[in-house]
Specification:
With 354 residues, this protein is an alpha/beta fold. It has two domains: 178 residues, Alpha-Beta Complex (Quinone Oxidoreductase, Chain A, domain 1), CATH 3.90.180.10; 137 residues, NAD(P)-binding Rossmann-like Domain (Rossmann fold, 3-Layer(aba) Sandwich). 28% of the residues lie in helices and 27% in strands. The chain contains eleven helices and 20 strands. Strands 3, 7, 8, 11, 12, 19 and 20 form a seven-stranded mixed sheet that branches. A six-stranded parallel sheet has the order 15-14-13-16-17-18, sandwiched between helices. The protein has a three-stranded antiparallel sheet with strand order 2-1-6, with no helix packed on it. Helix 4 crosses helix 5. The radius of gyration is 20 Å and the shape is globular. One of its GO terms (biological process) is sorbitol catabolic process. It comes from Xyrichtys novacula. It is found in: Cell projection, Cilium, Flagellum. InterPro entries: ADH-like_C (IPR013149), ADH-like_N (IPR013154), ADH_Zn_CS (IPR002328), ER (IPR020843), GroES-like_sf (IPR011032), NAD(P)-bd_dom_sf (IPR036291), SDH-like (IPR045306). Its main location: other.
Length: 354
């Protein structure tokens, strides 16, 4: 095996470098992966541009990347369910201890979790990477590496729709038609939502949302008032939606979601924005609107893989641009500028196929 392990390393705010690191050895319960496809997430760009995301601050050099798939090239002594050559999708959040959250099945909330590319934990935008074998999921033959990498954002959509209570006949407002808004759209439709309205500033992203199954697209301009937009949503649907899934983290968009949803409905907050925001909380309270937080995902990878493998969900159109790992800095600049939808980095020099 070549001992070159090219990695995309964030040293500090604005300081992104490609550099070689040693190829790691897997522990007893780990596998060594030759990375294949890694998507760029908005959180990676936020760390690069601001050096932090919420309470997570970059204090030392860190490899970026957490939307990933790869091939097993070495297995730890205690690993039984994977073998060399297996293609896997990687769940980036791994519990470090058996705490109450893990026992209750909500391990995503454990404060001690390892998580790829969350300071100080290294991610997997590199040639070779070790990960807990229990959080690597074998891909069926008809699922590509790129689809395997997209299991991570798709899992956000699954967890958001579960938290929001999407079911047969639900009417849903999705605020934001970026990658996360689009996967929420795909999942909501697959879970039986009857009508979905999606909003965005970008007509190009709304056009993709239409292609992916959105029933209505609402173009937002920066001067629109939240109550005005909420009324537009109701006019499109003929009634207020049961559920609003907010994917932007923008204060005005959160306000729109609360005003838009019907009394007794649910607002799920997926997007991360400012720490303190002003929202019409009394309006929500007197109408018994439930506001539910969404943090990452848990227990979603088998479901997401099955949805893709069965053809119930098609994530392939989300990938609009591809770059070799050697051009990762340019790819990040494209993502920062809002180019395309999902940018995929190809980490295997000898296999650049989807």
């Amino acid at each position: 095996m070549a001992q070159e392990n090219l990695s995309l390393v964030l040293h500090s705010k604005g300081d992104l470098r490609l550099e070689n690191r040693p190829v790691p050895e897997p522990g007893p319960n780990e596998v060594l992966l030759q990375m294949h496809s890694v998507g760029i997430c908005g959180s990676d760009v936020r760390f690069w541009q601001h050096g932090r995301l919420g309470d997570f601050v970059v204090k030392k050099p860190m490899v970026l990347g957490h939307e990933a798939s790869g091939r097993v090239v070495k297995v730890g002594a205690a690993v039984k369910h994977l073998k060399v050559g297996d293609r896997v999708a990687i769940e980036p959040g791994v519990p470090r201890e058996m705490d109450e959250f893990l026992k209750n099945g909500r391990y995503n909330l454990s404060p001690t979790n390892f998580f790829c590319s969350k300071p100080p934990d290294d991610g997997n935008l590199c040639r070779y990477y070790t990960h807990s074998a229990d959080f690597c999921y074998k891909l069926p033959d008809n699922v590509t590496f790129e689809e395997g990498a997209l299991i991570e954002p798709l899992s956000v959509g699954i967890h958001a729709c579960r938290r929001a209570g999407v079911t047969l006949g639900s009417s849903v407002l999705i605020c934001g038609a970026g990658p996360i808004g689009l996967v929420c759209l795909l999942v909501a439709k697959a879970m039986g939502a009857s009508q979905v309205v999606i909003t965005d500033l970008s007509s190009e992203r709304l056009a993709m949302a239409k292609e992916l199954g959105a029933d209505f697209q609402l173009t937002v301009t920066r001067g629109d008032g939240p109550q005005q937009l909420a009324q537009s949503v109701a006019d499109m649907l003929g009634a207020q939606p049961h559920i609003a899934i907010e994917c932007t983290g923008v204060e005005s968009s959160m306000q729109t979601a609360i005003y838009a949803v019907r009394s007794g409905g649910v607002v799920a907050l997926v997007g991360l924005g400012a720490e303190m925001v002003t929202v019409p909380l009394v309006n929500a309270a007197i109408r018994e609107v439930d506001i539910r937080g969404v943090f990452c995902y848990c227990n979603t990878w088998p479901t997401a893989i099955a949805m893709v493998a069965s053809g119930k969900v098609n994530v392939k159109p989300l990938v609009t641009h591809r770059f070799p790992l050697e051009q990762a800095v340019q790819a990040f600049e494209n993502k920062r500028q809002g180019v395309g939808v999902k940018i995929m980095l190809k980490c295997d020099q000898n296999d650049q196929k989807p």
